[in-house]
Design brief:
The structure is a single chain. The protein has about 170 residues and is an alpha+beta fold. It has a domain of about 60 residues: Jelly Rolls. Strands 1-2-9-4-7 form a 5-stranded antiparallel sheet. Strands 3-8-5-6 form a 4-stranded antiparallel sheet, with no helix packed on it.
């Protein structure tokens, strides 16, 4: 039997450094397992909600969020287009023109600048996706008396030239 040597582990041909440093081109997540982990976190026990960033790219964020029944996220608006997909449970959204219940397996897309608030009708988990254009346009206030404290904006951090991606 041969003793292991460094030569046994050396590739037969050179490997380009880009193939080693390149981020993965796709990700998969077990949403049930991630949801269970979030529900055992300190934030869930203290505040009734918890969240984890699943994907972080220059123009897209995907977060898994859990809310306890009765937890509310107050009225706000964001400058980016967002989508909310309920994974488990039921959410209630209050939009300017209507109130909408979003049951498990349903998807809601909210355009930039639309004010909304939400509450958990039952314990729930949902995916929040936030996307923005490369050159966002400034958002005009919906009313003259709008204050900065009335809005919440999710802004992308500047891309790092040395590390434009990050593994989670």
């Amino acid at each position: 039997m041969r003793r292991p040597s460094v030569e046994m582990f050396r590739p037969s041909r050179p490997v380009p450094i880009e193939s080693v440093l390149k981020p993965p081109s796709s990700f998969t997540f077990d949403l049930a397992a991630e949801t269970a982990r979030l529900k055992h976190g300190d934030a869930w026990l203290r505040t009734g909600h918890n969240a984890k960033v699943l994907a972080k790219h220059p123009h897209l964020r995907v977060l898994l969020t859990v809310l306890k029944v009765g937890t509310r996220i107050p009225r706000h608006r964001v400058e980016e287009r967002i989508s909310i997909q309920t994974v488990v449970g039921k959410l209630r959204f209050h939009l300017p023109a209507r109130t909408l219940d979003l049951a498990s397996g349903h998807l809601l897309v909210i355009e930039p600048g639309v004010q909304h608030d939400m509450e958990a009708v039952s314990d729930c988990a949902f995916l929040l996706s936030i996307s923005w254009p490369k050159d966002p346009l400034p958002l005009e206030p919906e009313r003259p008396e709008a204050r900065v404290s009335d809005t919440h904006a999710f802004r992308a951090p500047p891309a790092s030239p040395t590390r434009p991606w990050k593994l989670l």
